[in-house]
Amino acid sequence: MMLVGGIGVVFLDGFNVIASQLKDLAYLQFSIFDLTLFPMFVYMGNLAGLCGLSTRLFRAAHAWLGHLRGGIAMSVIFACAGFGSICGSSLATTSTMGRVALPELKHYRYADTLATGTLAAGGLLGILIPPSIVLVIYSVLVGINVVTMFKAALIPGIMALLFFLVAITIFVRIYPETAPVHKHTKEEDLLGATLGIIPVVVIFTTVIGGLYFGVFNPTPAAAVGVFMVAVYGLAAGQLNLAKFKLALLSTARSTGMIYLILLGAEMLKIFMVRGGVPQALSAQMLGSGFEPLTILIIFLLVLILLGCIMDSLSILLLAVPFIWPVIASLDFGMPIDDVKVWFGILALIVVEIGLITPPIGLNVFVIAAMAKNVDVKKIYAGVTPFLIAEIIRIGLLIAFPVLILWLPSIIDT
């Protein structure tokens, strides 16, 4: 993106223009205060993974649901949602829960298709259950309050959780041999496993509850989350200096990568704007005679296709600056701020679908790297029920925007 954007501006306007822009472009991009959320939430997620919170979540869900047919797969979905609430990344949720749950699913003789498909799809919950790293970036791109986006994401996130559970239930009814039934957990083990997730509940409630009800702003909320995870890890004996260093280095790598993508996307956007691409796209769409809803669906389909070959953050950074002006110019019968929220959640969901669709579903390949004896085709077959559930969910969210807009409307930001 940097190369294309830089060379493009040089061809259009000469070297002096790009040299002048580069003088302060990086500073202007990286000094946006809301972006401080990104390294903080990434650091919180890294510390949470090292603390063993993902294991505690899975054990608790396993204790409650493991005796049901498909119950361990359902446990994976619950654990992914719980870990996503303190992580904010789909790939991190997929890789972490894969390490925790894949051996258990194999031990209980779950079919490879169901086991790997559930883990790949469950990772999608990491990006939508607040706090979401990608939602922070989207908020900066379109100029909307990040807390409003977090509120709007909660109901669609819960819908995803419930729809995935229904997908598993239907799948194991049709193919009962894929999920053997097991014994109930003993009462003392059930109590112990349930008490084990209290730290996660406290951290999530403090961070997200504090954000929703205005106790603190997003950046202090992220700092509080890091502090609470660190205190828990030290108290539980799960963290030491070496692990803090490991989490910091991982956070620095992720943050550096994302900031470079931000800079590259901005350079490419400058080239596209100077070349008249957004203006031409807007004129083309507005002159097409299509209804606003049809144009929205076309753009969502484009984002799904892009999701098959690129990661979600790169897509949003590349596509939203061009798509959003067109969406903003359409009449959906609601205020522009509501359109920002509605479109943002829809865009996030369809982009994330690309993580489990061919040919390059990143979540699928993360799981394939762990389940080395499972053919990738089997994993794609395993995610099919979840893809169907996602399509139904998107249809409902398009038809009923209130599912996205209701929570922000009743809780003032």
Short description:
With 413 residues, this protein is an all-alpha fold.
Give structural notes.
By secondary structure, this protein is mainly α. Helices cover 78% and strands 0% of the residues. The protein contains 21 helices and no strands. α14 runs parallel beside α17 and α16 packs parallel to α18.
Index terms:
413 residues; mainly alpha
Give unreliable regions as ranges: none
Please state the structural category.
Answer: mainly alpha
Quaternary form: single chain
Instruction: Please state the overall shape, judged from the principal axes of the Cα atoms.
Output: globular
Distance between the termini: 35 Å
Strand content: under 5%
Provide the gyration radius in Å: 22 Å
Helix content bin? over 70%
The count of strands amounts to: 0
Count, helices = 21
Order of H and E elements: HHHHHHHHHHHHHHHHHHHHH
Q: How would you state the average pLDDT, rounded?
A: 88
Major sheet size, sense and barrel closure: none
